[in-house]
Amino acid sequence: METRLEVRLKEPNPLFTRWLERWLREAERRQQKSQFKLRQALEALKSYPLPLYSGRDCAILRGFGGTLCQMIDEELRQHRGVNLLPATSATSEQYEQQVQQVVRRVQEKQVEQAQKKKEKEKRPRKPTKKELLEMAAAEERQRRVEMPPRGFEVLLLVDTQETSGKNKRVLDQTRSYLESLGARHEVRRLTIGDFLWIAKDTAGNELVLPYIVERKRMDDLASSIRDGRFHEQKHRLKQSGLKHVIYLVEDYGDNEQLGLPLDSLQQALVNARVQTGVQVVRTENHFRSMAYLASMSRSLGQIFGQKTLHSVERGTPQDKADSCLLVDSRLGLLKFRALYEDSAKNAQLTVREVFVQQLLQLHSLSLERAMAIVERYPTPRCLLDAYDECLEPKEARQLLARIPCGPLERPLGEKISHCLYEFFTTHFR
To answer: Which one is catalytic: 162, 206, 250, 342?
Structure first.
């Protein structure tokens, strides 16, 4: 490995420096104007890193005029006297010697550093605190958990957003209702959904039952449909790994002044139920919603309490356990910690998942339509390449029109196909 060295003499021109200092003192004693030029020349000489051999060489520096250069040459001739050896001899030898010394020191230091590096590599590296935490988390995810019948309790988890608000009067309304109904619950921050159930044993292990609830008041439902959160939430709930997704929808007074027509909201709920398999439960008020959750807790406790539960990784087929929920005595469930980390909004997403979320932000694109597009073109790059392969713009505009969507396999339509073509060819070119 080559190392670039910068060698600087401590005093490259000691003889010239002494002469200038002597002339400067004389000029200052006599108060001559030449003292200013001499001081400037002395500073420039001390800053110059290379040796100079004559007054003519000094002319490249600031402050060295013709007179000063002649004075240096005259002083240099007197200093040499009868010795006619080149003035460069001693200085060059001194310079070469210093360079060789620096090179030897650098080489010795490099050898020493290489030896220390080898010794350090031989020693086992102590993991950092972050690495220890990551290793512990990985081991925890891989650790198998098994809960025997009646060796756990079913607990309802309530998201912190459901127990907080600006109105102090209703601040703990959710908790007070659940306590009055005798539902065992715990308030935590959930990364997905508003309510879910876990099986917790005495050792602190937690497995998630395959049910998750998203609570919506009618006015909140209208707001989420307008800003696109409704489709994005449905997508995240379906991707969570929990098969039974429940939308718990509460009436908002007389369901007036919701921001959207009531018929439109009801149609959105019907679409969610028919097209994505989401279960929709309507309640009259907040208390009725908590009563429904309390009854679900009792039912799930009776169903799962007699079964043996064990942990599985996300992506493991759950269909058998779900289809034989009442018959099978052994069920595989996700760990709560794994669900919490995998469902976080800032979790690492695939390009396909990000593409779906991007499409859901566009007007008139439902989850079913977005999924149909992504099935045909998994990434934006694939879609742009398909547009490039079209011979004419008219063909490109019709590219997505006939893609089947939903259970009925209806075509996507020309209008949406045109909008997507204009969007991607205008904003991504």
So the answer is: 162
What is the tens place of the pLDDT at every residue in 144-198? 888 998 889 999 999 887 655 545 455 578 888 999 999 999 988 888 889 999 9
Active site residue 319: no
Interhelix angle for 229-238 vs 351-360, to 10°? 150
Q: Which residue has the tokens 């490249």?
A: 60
**Which of 427, 209, 231, 407 lies closest to 301 in space, CA to CA?**
209
Cβ contact 14:48 at 8 Å: no
CA–CA–CA angle 69, 75, 81 (5° rounding): 140
Question: What does the block give as tokens for 69?
Answer: 């250069």
Question: Coil, strand, or helix at residue 183?
Answer: coil
At a CB cut-off of 8 Å and minimum separation 6, what does 343 contact?
A: 191, 192, 236, 240
Task: Look up residue 302 and give its amino acid.
Answer: Q
Is 140 among the residues known to form the active site? no
Q: CA of 97: how far to CAs of 11, 93, 234, 319, in Å?
A: 14, 6, 78, 82
The structure tokens listed for 154 are 């079913």
Determine the pLDDT at residue 90. Answer: 55
Which residue in 6, 119, 159, 220 is the catalytic one? 159
Backbone φ and ψ for 141, nearest 5 degrees, come out as -65, -35
Reply yes or no on whether the pLDDT at 38 is more than 50.
yes
Helix, coil or strand: residue 281: strand
The pLDDT of 201-223, averaged and rounded, is 89
In angstroms, the CA 46 to CA 13 distance is 8
In sequence order, what are the residues at sequence separation of 6 or more whose Cβ sits closer than 8 angstroms to the Cβ of residue 349? 357
Q: What pLDDT was estimated at residue 83?
A: 47
DSSP string, 324-349: TTTT-SEEEEEEHHHHHHHT-TTS--
Residue 383, burial from CB neighbour count under 10 angstroms (0-12, 13-18, 19+): buried
**Whole-model pTM over 0.85:** no
Burial 36-58 (b: 16+ CB within 10 A, else e): ebbeebbebbeebeebbbebebb
Query: Of 11, 131, 194, 256, which is the active-site residue?
Result: 194
- The verdict on whether 162 is a catalytic residue reads yes
Q: In this structure, what token pair is assigned to residue 151?
A: 């060796």
